[in-house]
Specification:
Region (Disordered): 69-151
Number of strands: 0
Radius of gyration: 27 Å
Number of helices: 9
Biased composition (Polar residues): 70-79
Oligomer: single chain
Distance between the termini: 36 Å
Length: 211
């Protein structure tokens, strides 16, 4: 893997880490709101509360919410480099190596001649076009200044962080899946029995304060 590929991977990891952290904060707030709503509902009559309990569960297990939380449990597809970008990144690396070789071979002569300046301009223009086509950026200066091995180690560290966040997403999704399954199963029971079941399943879902 070239240095440009490693930097591109690093950028994807940074972006994915930010997405996961933001999403998990949203999910944590959702569970906090569920706990607050459940506690607040204790002051209402059983008949009214029965409907409130159902609404609470349906809100946190809607298709939209389930899809969002599930997306936090697996980042593999988002971390895969697009094949086109991989190919163009390799081409960009080769162009840089070619440019460096030319400069090392007769750099002094190019500096002294106007023709050399034009050649350098063409190479720079070629880099710019490649970057425009691929969306490739130079990346943070601190990453660019690192050697390949240091970037690789940083990527490994970021992969571990993404995996840790994915595990939190998996726990949250499993908790909501269980709540959704229990809610569907409770529909077969009479309201008095179901009322107690709704309370129990919400209490189970909010028992763990942290996801």
């Amino acid at each position: 893997m070239s240095k440009d590929d490693l930097i591109a991977e690093n950028e994807r990891l940074v972006k994915e880490t930010e997405r996961l952290k933001s999403g998990l904060e949203e999910v944590q707030q959702m569970f906090n709101n569920l706990e607050w709503a459940y506690t607040d509902s204790k002051g209402t009559f059983s008949l009214s509360r029965y409907g409130h309990l159902k609404d609470m569960i349906k809100k946190v297990t809607s298709d939209e919410v389930m899809k969002m939380v599930q997306s936090l449990s697996d980042s593999s597809s988002r971390l895969q480099p697009p094949e086109e970008k991989r190919g163009m990144a390799g081409l960009l690396q080769k162009a840089r190596e070619f440019g460096s070789g030319e400069e090392g071979a007769d750099g002094a002569q190019k500096q002294a001649s106007s023709g050399g300046d034009k050649g350098g301009g063409k190479v720079s223009g070629f880099f710019k076009k490649l970057k425009d086509m691929t969306g490739f950026s130079d990346g943070p200066p601190d990453i660019r200044c690192l050697d390949k091995e240091d970037i690789r180690k940083d990527n490994e560290r970021k992969h571990r962080e993404v995996n840790r966040l994915n595990m939190r997403g998996q726990r949250a999704f499993a908790r909501l899946e269980q709540l959704q399954s229990q809610y569907q199963a409770s529909k077969a029971h009479a309201p008095p029995t179901r009322y107690q079941e709704l309370k129990d399943m919400i209490k189970t879902a909010i028992a763990d304060k942290q996801i």
